[in-house]
Amino acid sequence: MGNFSYKNGALHAEGVNLTALAERHGTPAYVYSRAAIEANWRAYADACAGRDALVCYSVKANGNLAILNLLARLGSGFDIVSGGELERVIAAGGEPGKVVFSGTGKRADEMARALEAGIHCFNVESEAELLRLDEIAGQMSLTAPVSIRVNPDIDPDTHPYIATGLRGNKFGVDHEEALEIYRLADRLGHITATGIDCHIGSQITSTGPYVDAVKKLLALLGHLEKTGISVSHIDIGGGLGISYRDETAPDAAGFAGVISDLVPARYGIILEPGRSIVGNAGVLLTRVEYLKANREKHFAVVDASMNDLLRPSLYQAWHDIIPVSERADGAQAEYDVVGPICETGDFLGLGRSLSLGPDDLLAVMCAGAYGFSMSSNYNARPRAVELLVDGERGHVIRERETVGQLMAGEKILPA
Q1: Active site residue: 48, 56, 121, 342, which one?
Q2: What is the pTM of this model?
C-alpha cells in the first residue's frame, strides 16, 4: 500500500494515524500523501532526464491548490481542459509557459485568457477550433502555438467511457485528415504548429497501445516533413493506469523510458500523467453509520456516497475497502458498502468481506484521482474535507463545505 500502512493495528498515512485524523476532522475525508505524490511525479521526470521533456500533470485528476503547488515546486508542467483549471494552476504558482490546453470545447474567452497568460501550447481538436483560435489570436495581435490532437484509432483496452483514441470518440481529428489540418494551420496568419498530440484513453495497463500510437504519429510526421511542415515536440498524452485490484500496470519510470527510447531525440516529449501521480496517493475515509441485513444481503451504510466518490457507480470501478483499525477477532460477512444517497446505484463497493461494527472507520483505497474532482452536492450534501499528510503532520488543504455555502448564491423570487 506504499505510503499507507498499518502500524500497531492502525492504518497510517506516512506517519499520521488515520483514526486520529478522522476524529479531529470528521468524515467523509480525503487524505493524500505528499511523499507518494512527489515520488510518482519524479519517476516520470527521472526517466526522461537528459532530453527535452515536459511532464504535464493532468489537473482534472485532482486540482486541489496544495497538490498543484507541490508539483509546481518540482518544476511540473500542467495539462488543463478548462479556463478554470488554468486559473487554478496560476493561483498555485504554476508557470503558464509549461501549460498545455486540451479539450474538445474550448470557449473563446478561455482561448483569449490562455493566450494572454502565454501558455506553452493549445492541443487543437478540430478544424473549427483551429479557425476560432486563429481569429482570436489575430484580434489580440498574437500567434497561438498549437499541436493537432490526432485520433490514431488505437484500442487502449479500457472502460469505454475513458477510451479517447478510437475513431468513434469525440476527441481529436481522424488520422487520415490530420495532414490537411496541418496544411491549413500552416496557411493561417496567427497560428504556428509546434507539435503533434494524441491521447488514447485512461487507466491503460500496458505500453503496447502507446507504442502503436507513437509509431502512427511518427509516420504522420514523416509525411508532414516532406511537405515542409516541421514540429518540435510529440505529446503522447497521459492515461497510464494504476493497480486498483489485480491489474499489473507498468511503472511510470518504465513507461516513460519506453516512450523516450521510441521518440527520436530531435523531438521534445510531453507527457500528461494524472491518475498515476495522485491515484494511489489518496484514500477516502468513511464511517459506518448502520449495519443492516435482509434475506439476500448484508449492508454497511456509511457516511460517504456516490456524491463523494462517483467512480464505482459511474464506471463500476473497484476500490479496495479496508478497516482503519484491524480487528483481532470478529466474524466476517459479505457486505455491500453503500451510502445515504437515494439511488440504488449509490455504492462504494459490492460484496466485500469485512468484519464490521457500527462507527467503524473504513478507508477506500486509491481514491486520489477522480475522487474529489468528480464529487458533487447531490442530495444537498456538502463536499468532503481534504487533508494532506506530510511526514508526521496532517494539513487541511480544503475545508469541509457547509450547507450554508451551498445556498449562498441562490435567490428567492420577490413576493
Answers
A1: 342
A2: 0.94
